[in-house]
Specification:
Strand order of the largest sheet: 1-2-4-3
Number of strands: 7
Largest sheet: 4 strands, mixed
Number of domains: 1
Radius of gyration: 20 Å
Order of helices and strands: HEHHEHEEHHEEEHHHH
Number of helices: 10
Shape: globular
Amino acid sequence: MSEKVNKIVTEKMIKLLEDGVIPWQRPWKSGRPQNFITKRPYRGINALITSPIVSGFECQDWLTAKQLNTLGFKLKENQKYTPIVFWGRGEKKVNGKDKKFAFTRFYKIFNKSQIENYETTWPPEEPIKPCGLCDECDGGNRCRELPDLEAYENEAQDIMDGYESRGGSLTSYGKGRAYYCPATDKIGMPSPGTFVNRPEFWSTQFHEVIHSTGHKNRLSRNLENVFGDHAYSEEELVAEMGSCFLMADLGIIDRTIVNSAGYIQSWLKKLKDNRKFLMQAAQRAEKACDYVRGESYNDKQT
């Protein structure tokens, strides 16, 4: 079943890239999409699948077909499902011994806005005046204000401090560029004041931190050439997605978008050459984020 989902997702991503949109760059306008009933946010490739830029639905809430039936909700006419993947672990007897194995399941989910009478059941909030702090406002939409600067800075710093206290790579500032060096297990960053804004600083910091989780003594990913030219490698996509996931969890949107023709064409070639490339990178990015936060990946599936 996961092969079917992989094909659907990859084709969607390829179509977005062909249209000049990078699906893993700023896919959300606020936090991650979530299950409407459990309130658990979607993770890894499922977070991208359910994002507005990929799914086309602005509403963040989703339900399974079973949840719809249990609650007695009916869908509007001619609604299509969105496929997501569940990763699980099980045990089976092999030659009389218990052997653990991994498995994937394919689930059909629906956006809350696909439910009949959605607009009257969950009426939109009254529009308010633009805040003047961001470029997302207009006269007819509710303003999506920037999060409290001090709050997210403190939370971001807590993530960094926690990672370093558990043996994560240390960061040195004042460097000429941002990098992670596997040989020394060190992160180098320009001075914070040299960045255009704080979100750009933190997205870059998290990008290098995600690289560092691939060290052989941590998650042991292939970091070949990570200190040199690693553009368009799976490791680079892991770092881009991982930074994006961490920023989304903090409620921070990095407004610096890279969408040059060369950048897009390079990722298009990668996805067309290897259809599992994106899904694998998203899963590894989520594992890296959990490692940075000191959490268990296997306890937080969906």
